[in-house]
Design goal:
Elements lengths: L4 H16 L20 H20 L8 H16 L8 H15 L10 H12 L13 H12 L5 H17 E3 L2 E2 L10 H16 L8 H8 L24 H9 L6 H16 L4 E2 L2 E2 L37 H4 L9 E5 L4 E6 L2 E6 L18 H4 L2 E3 L15 E5 L2 E2 L6 E6 L2 E6 L14 E9 L2 E20 L9 E5 L3 E7 L9 E21 L9 H11 L5
Antiparallel strand pairs: 1-2, 3-4, 5-6, 6-7, 7-8, 9-10, 9-14, 11-12, 12-13, 13-14, 14-17, 15-17, 16-17
Helix pairs in contact: 1-2, 2-3, 2-4, 3-5, 4-6, 6-7, 6-8, 8-10, 10-11
Length: 558
């Protein structure tokens, strides 16, 4: 569905109206209902102010403010920076929110910042500057002080401290680049939606507002990222903070606003509007408020840092409103995407398979394990560890049978996948290796390794796993898609048993789910292969010959 600019404005107003019903008397906090985050209710209230301010800022950035949103945010800013807001501290949530406050002030400067007294401005600057003097988390958080610095420089309050904050963030970003337009979220290999709604957004928007060239590979990123949306508007369900929902469309909108995009304006408008509509029609709102979840409330989609106002990072999608009414984003004829495409991304180790309106993402490169961290089974994260994700299914919870996973059972303990070692990606395949990790005193078995490759044709997925060094008594298990859609998993080499497992906690898409499972007793070095299909049937072909063909191109190619 292609939303008009007026519909985006109306949606922003509706979200703000519902949220402001929960404002504190001094307007410094929006205390939304729901379970608190680990940061506490005062921090959650600041989050409510800051994240909705971002929506208000994009909505009013052209000076149109018939509901007087900015008057309310000015009052809240004055009270908050006079001592009501919690202070910014090392790796603390207020640092995150400082970026939204700063960006909101920058976008609305003529109507908010410039109308404050000098004393009020000084207090706001003093609160914001603490972002430079405390330690961010070792990832996209470095762009929170960056964004504070960019605002202060835009109002003539820059200095060596602001320059250093921006320089440090960009130096780190350069080191996190892995190719194909994708950055890791920090050292290591964590690829997820933070690419679009943080790592590209903050520096690219800053450059755009300054009239400078954009240097973050945004156009190249969008060439692959735009494929990660289903025909129904659903973004790929992959990585953390998915409760931000339609924030997934931020990079698409940013590309259209800045011109750094391979997409036509009509294609961009269709994608962002379809994503917004997907969540609005699938229960994302309760009493006008964005809930903690995906469609509706969903606990497994959350992290300990998620609080009642966390979903309002979705406000970033309203960056599209920086395009004025006469911008081609709103005036060009709508264009819908081609339905089918396969794309291998060697840099991040991902394989995109889009067929019949559903996108699948085969993961051979993103693990969210930082370089200094050990590999422990209890730390397994379903949002990164599985071999495949899609726009129509979500992974099972870590306490249910794992979907799209190969596990080894040794002495009653089942392995998980933690650190992923990419082995290449090209054409229609991607490959990786990992050391199975067990929840025991000895977390790894000496010499035990699994090499894996996924190759795709149309909607068919050939999944090959070579187990190396399996001790006697090892049982191998392979699972497919967790869904009640017809999604077979058929063994074509090495698998001897077939089971179905139930995931009682379901997924973000279904209350309960069934997981097809193949089994085999193995020892030593064994090659196992199966074909999986999401909502379809397995094609009649010589799959055994295809296994040999793909092995010759990948694991056996040296």
């Amino acid at each position: 569905m292609s939303y008009t600019r007026e519909q985006w404005v109306g949606t922003a107003d509706d979200l703000l109206t519902a949220a402001w019903r929960h404002a504190s008397p001094d307007q410094a906090f929006l205390d939304l209902p729901g379970r608190p985050s680990r940061s506490g209710v005062r921090s959650d209230g600041l989050e409510g102010y800051a994240r909705t301010f971002l929506a208000a800022a994009f909505r009013t950035a052209h000076g149109d403010d018939p509901h007087n949103w900015l008057e309310r945010y000015a009052a809240g800013l004055t009270a908050g920076t006079a001592g009501e807001w919690p202070a910014i501290f090392d790796v603390g949530q207020p640092m995150v929110e400082s970026a939204s406050v700063a960006l909101g002030l920058r976008l609305t400067r003529p109507w908010l910042w410039d109308k404050l007294t000098e004393t009020q401005q000084d207090r706001a600057e003093a609160w914001l500057r603490e972002a430079f003097r405390h330690v961010p988390a070792a990832n996209n958080w470095y762009f929170f002080p960056y964004t504070v610095a960019a605002f202060l420089e835009s109002v003539g309050r820059g200095d060596e401290e602001t320059q250093q904050a921006k320089r440090r963030a960009m130096e780190l970003l350069d080191g996190w680049y892995r190719g194909d337009g994708w950055y890791s979220d920090g050292d290591g290999r964590a690829f997820d939606h933070y690419n679009g709604w943080a790592l590209h957004l903050y520096p690219a928007l800053d450059a755009h507002l300054n009239g400078q060239p954009i240097t973050t590979h945004l156009k190249e990123h969008l060439d692959s990222f735009h494929l990660l949306f289903g025909a129904d508007g659903a973004p790929i369900y992959f990585g953390r903070s998915l409760t931000y929902r339609f924030a997934a469309a931020t990079a698409i909108a940013l590309g259209a606003v800045t011109g750094e995009t391979p997409l036509t304006p009509g294609h961009s408008r269709y994608l962002i509007g379809n994503t917004l509509d997907y969540f609005l029609r699938n229960g994302a709102l309760t009493d006008g408020l964005l809930t903690l979840g995906w469609h509706g409330p969903h606990e497994a989609s959350l992290q300990p840092y998620s609080g009642p106002a966390s979903p309002y990072w979705a406000s970033k999608a309203f960056v599209c409103l920086l395009a004025g009414p006469d911008h081609p984003l709103w005036t060009a004829e709508e264009e819908r995407p081609d339905p089918d495409r396969t794309l291998a991304l060697r840099g991040p180790g991902l394989l995109i398979q889009r067929h019949n309106g559903v996108t699948r993402l085969h993961n051979h490169g993103s693990d969210h394990v930082r370089p200094f961290e050990g590999e422990y089974a209890p730390d397994e994260d379903p949002l990164y560890s599985r071999f495949a994700y899609s726009t129509a299914t979500g992974p099972t919870s870590k306490h249910n049978p794992a979907d799209n996973h190969i596990g080894l059972v040794i002495r009653g303990k089942r392995s998980v996948r933690r650190r992923i070692h990419p082995l290449g990606a090209a054409a229609n395949w991607a490959a990786s290796a990992h050391h199975p990790v067990f929840d025991t005193d000895q977390v790894m078995v000496p010499g035990l390794r699994i090499e894996s490759v996924t190759a795709v044709w149309d909607d068919q997925e050939l999944r090959i796993h070579r187990v190396i060094g399996a001790p006697p008594g090892t049982r191998a298990e392979l699972t497919g898609w967790a869904t009640d859609l017809p999604s077979p998993l058929v063994g074509v080499r090495g698998w001897t048993g077939v089971e179905w497992q139930t995931a009682p906690q379901g997924t973000a898409f279904a209350a309960t789910a069934s997981v097809p499972t193949l089994t085999a007793d193995i020892e030593g070095t064994v090659t196992l292969a199966a074909v999986a299909v999401l909502n379809g049937t397995v094609q009649e072909t010589d799959w055994d010959a295809r296994v040999d063909e793909i092995l010759a191109q990948t694991l056996d190619a040296g």
